[in-house]
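Try this one yourself first.
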């Protein structure tokens, strides 16, 4: 666990960190994000003592970093920077082995560990171990940097905008690889970026920093749905939630008060209800729970309107839970069939409904231009 308690740091007259309080649990993927100069990189570097603080405490697993000997840090903390931060005069194998040597690993284990780490970042050990950094592309150097950080098996990995200089394709590949490494090794990762899409993709929590203060620290989902203030809302981008369908659930955009009827109603009563509400189907319930769907086409031609509707309801329809993601809903929907989709909780109680129209409206939100800031126009 990493704890920041009232951490403050100034450079001359500029206060960069203004009483930071934050706890990062073991195994978290914490992303620090904010605009340039907000203090996110400074905060990261207080963890491995690259930057000393003026006051407050940075505590790692109960030990104040002031008490940690710098020679012990490679055992506890891995560090990745842009371009990997590799030593140009050392081979790839020697670069990766460096942290293990500093952590006093036995020599006979280092060679095998280098092989393992190169394989984990999708580099052929025999093809790359004897090359020098200048012989690698930017993406390959960054993969080596990641391998070096994980090599000595430290519990904490710090990553300072490691992918910002890479092309989008390579960047996405490395994001996937780091995410897989986090899942497999359960390291505590503290990651600095200015890219909100990257933060959402990687993190378990996102810490938004502005002017040296934490303005919100939350899960990606809650950050997107419940920004703490106008700054967070503006920094995230008002439409960003709608381009992340895995964070949008049926209950977020379902229609309330569906036209429904009880299973004991007669055909005549059902037809009258359809007429009043101008619909061609009813959601049928029993004790508040979804029992089926009654379509006008199933009853319009029968002669005895006094019959109960239970013989005519169908279970041939799509239903979703209130916590089903938009991504999953879209994969289920057949747009050539009826547009009414009941939404229930996990006990079967009817909560609302979806239509093709509200689905399409929700999906189109990501393409809707964000409102311009109010201000004076060119005519004064």
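Now uncover the answer:
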């Amino acid at each position: 666990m990493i704890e920041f308690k009232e951490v403050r740091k100034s450079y001359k007259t500029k206060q960069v960190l203004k009483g930071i309080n934050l706890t990062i649990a073991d195994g978290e993927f914490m992303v620090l994000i904010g605009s340039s100069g907000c203090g996110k990189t400074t905060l990261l570097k207080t963890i491995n003592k690259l930057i000393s603080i003026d006051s407050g405490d940075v505590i790692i697993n109960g030990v104040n970093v002031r008490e940690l000997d710098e020679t012990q840090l490679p055992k506890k903390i891995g560090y990745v920077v842009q371009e990997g931060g590799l030593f140009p005069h050392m081979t790839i194998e020697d670069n990766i082995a460096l942290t293990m040597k500093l952590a006093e690993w036995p020599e006979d284990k280092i060679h095998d560990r280098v092989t393992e780490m190169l394989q984990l970042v999708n580099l052929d050990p025999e093809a790359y171990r004897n090359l020098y950094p200048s012989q690698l592309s930017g993406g390959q150097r960054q993969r080596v940097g990641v391998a070096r950080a994980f090599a000595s098996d430290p519990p904490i990995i710090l990553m300072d905008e490691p992918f910002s200089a890479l092309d989008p394709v390579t960047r996405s590949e490395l994001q996937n690889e780091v995410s897989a490494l986090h899942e497999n090794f359960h390291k505590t990762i503290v990651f600095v970026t200015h890219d909100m899409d990257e933060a959402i993709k990687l993190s378990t929590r996102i810490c938004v920093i502005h002017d040296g203060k934490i303005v919100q620290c939350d899960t990606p989902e809650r950050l997107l749905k419940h920004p703490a203030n106008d700054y967070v809302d503006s920094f995230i981008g008002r439409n960003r939630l709608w381009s992340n369908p895995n964070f949008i659930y049926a209950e977020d955009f379902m229609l309330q008060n569906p036209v429904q009827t009880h299973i004991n109603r007669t055909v005549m009563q059902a037809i009258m209800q359809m007429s009043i509400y101008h619909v061609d189907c009813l959601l049928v319930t029993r004790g508040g729970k979804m029992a089926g769907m009654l379509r006008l086409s199933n009853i319009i031609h029968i002669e005895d309107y006094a019959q109960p509707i239970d013989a005519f309801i169908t279970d041939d329809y799509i239903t979703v839970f209130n916590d089903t993601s938009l991504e999953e809903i879209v994969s289920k929907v057949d747009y050539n069939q009826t547009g009414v989709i009941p939404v229930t909780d996990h006990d079967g109680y009817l909560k609302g409904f979806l239509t093709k129209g509200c689905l399409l409206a929700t999906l189109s939100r990501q393409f809707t231009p964000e409102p311009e800031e109010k201000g004076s126009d060119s005519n004064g």
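Discussion: The chain has two domains: 2-238, 251-364. Confidence is low (pLDDT under 50) at residues 373-380.
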